[in-house]
Amino acid sequence: MRNKALYLAALYLGGLALLTLGACGKSDNAPANPNGSNVTLTADQRRNIKLTTVALGGFRKNVDTTGVVDFDNNQATAMLAPFSGTVSRLYVEPGAVVKKGDPLAAVVSPDYASAVSTYRKALVTAQNARKLADLDKDLLAHQGVSAREEEQAQTDAASAEADRDAGLQALQSLGVDPQVIRDTDDGKPTASGEGVIRAPVAGTVVEKLIQPGQLLQAGTTPVFTVADLSRVWVMAHIFDSDIGAVHLGDTASVSGAGRNLSGTVDNIAAEVDPNTRSVAVRVVVNNPGDFLKRQMYVQVGIQDRQATQGILIPVSAILRDDENLPYVYVLEGDGSFARAHVGLGYRSGDQYAISGGLRPGQQVVTDGALFLQFMQQQ
Q1: Integer CA distances (angstroms), 205 to 243, 289, 365, in order
Q2: Alpha helices in the chain (DSSP H)
Q3: For a Cys staple, 183 with which of 125, 153, 188, 298, CB 3.0–4.6 Å?
Q4: Mind listing the pLDDT tens digit for each residue in 323-375?
Q5: Residue 268, CA distances (Å) to 21, 243, 264, 296 in order
Q6: Which residue, among 257, 345, 340, has the nearest Cα to 294 in the 3D structure?
Q7: Residues 197, 98: Cα–Cα separation, whole Å
C-alpha cells in the first residue's frame, strides 16, 4: 500500500515538471518566423546597412518579345498578269528599284493585240459617228433632215464615243504605254501583239514569280511583288501576362541587322492564336537603308505609354528563403529587423513592383540584407 502511494506521488511530480518546462519554452511574444527571432544590431552594425521607406510610385512596363519582319501591306502590291500570253523578256530582277509605270516584263499576248485593235476600231467609229451627228445638226437647221433623224444621229454618236472610252480604259488597265495610245489616236501604226507589264507603284521589286517562256493567265498568274521598303511591319507576339501592358500607340524598339530602330504599335489582334496561344501585335517601323528584310527575326521591346502605380523596392532588397520564396527585412518598432515575405510583380529596371506583403511607410533593408541573413542564421 505504501509503495503504491509513493508511485502515484512520483507520477504527479513528473507531470508537473513537464508542464512547467512546456510553459517556460513558450512565449506569447515569440516570432512566427520559422527561421528564428528578429535580428537586433548594434549601432556599429547598423552603419553597414541602408534603409528605404516603402512608398507608392509610378512605372512603365516594358514587354520584351521577338518578331518577324514583313512588308507593309499598305505599301506593297502583289501583281497578277494583266493579260494572257507568253513571257518574251524580263526587264528587272528582285532588288531593282522602279518608278510607277516602269516596264517589268514583255509578253506576247493575243489579249493585248485584241484590246489595241478594239480601241482603234472604236476610235474610228466614234469619229465618223460624231461627224454625221454634226452634219445632221446642220441639216436640221436648214430643214434638210427631220428632228427624229438628227436625234438618232446624236444618239449613235454618243454610243460610239462610249465604246471608244471603254476601249481606252481597257488599254489603260492593261498598262499599255501612253505613247502607244497617242499613236493610235493620231492614226499611226503601233506594235502588234507584244504587251508590257508595268510597275503599278514606285518601290522595290521584292518578288519575281515568272520566267521567259512561261504562259500567263490573265488575272490568275502571280508575276511580281513591288513594295516600298522605307517602312515595314514587324509582327510580334505577346502572351496573357503582358496583354494589359500593350496598347495602341505604344513606342517599340526593334533590334535587327545590327541596328536599333524605333516603331509604334498600330494594331493588336482581336483573338488568340490557337497554335501559339499568343496575341499578334503589329509594329510599324521606319526602315532607312532597307536594313530590315522580310522574314528576318528581330528583338522587340514595347514600352507601355500608360504609367502603372505600385510599390517599388530595389532588387537588392530581395532575398530567398529555403523554399525559394522571396522576402525582405523590415524594421520593427523595437529597432529589430524581421523577415516579411513579399509577392514579386513586374520588374522595372533594378526595381521590383511588390504585389503583396508590404505597405507604404514601412522601412526595408535595401543594402546589407545579406548581412542580416547571416546574423539571423547564427
Answers
A1: 36, 15, 61
A2: 2-24, 43-46, 110-141, 147-173, 178-185, 369-377
A3: 188
A4: 999 999 999 989 999 999 999 887 777 888 888 899 999 999 999 888 888 88
A5: 68, 10, 11, 20
A6: 257
A7: 13
163: closest CA among 110, 113, 121, 131?
Answer: 121
Give percent of the chain above pLDDT 90: 39
Q: What is the pLDDT of residue 151?
A: 86
Per-residue pLDDT of 214-264, as tens digits, reads: 999 988 999 999 999 999 999 999 988 788 889 899 999 999 878 899 999
What is the DSSP secondary structure assignment for residue 43, as one 8-state letter?
H
Closest CA to 307 of 63, 61, 64: 61
Measure CA 339 to chain center.
43
Grid cell at residue 180? 502607244
> In angstroms, rounded to a whole number, what is the distance separating the alpha carbons of residues 291 and 331?
54
Return left, alpha or beta for 215; rule: phi > 0 is left, psi -120 to 50 is alpha, else beta: beta
Distance CA(365)–CA(246), nearest Å, equals: 33
Please enumerate in sequence order all residues whose Cβ is within 8 A of that of 376, keeping only pairs 6 or more positions apart, or say none: 35, 36, 39, 339
* Amino acid (1-letter code) at residue 31: P
Between CA 373 and CA 378 the distance in angstroms is: 9
Q: How far apart are CA 49 and CA 328, in angstroms?
A: 13
DSSP string covering 160-210, please?
A: HHHHHHHHHHHHHHTT--HHHHHHHHTT-----SEEEEE-SSSEEEEEE--
Q: Cell numbers 516603331 correspond to what residue?
A: 263
33 burial type by CB count under 10 A (0-12 exposed, 13-18 middle, 19+ buried):
middle
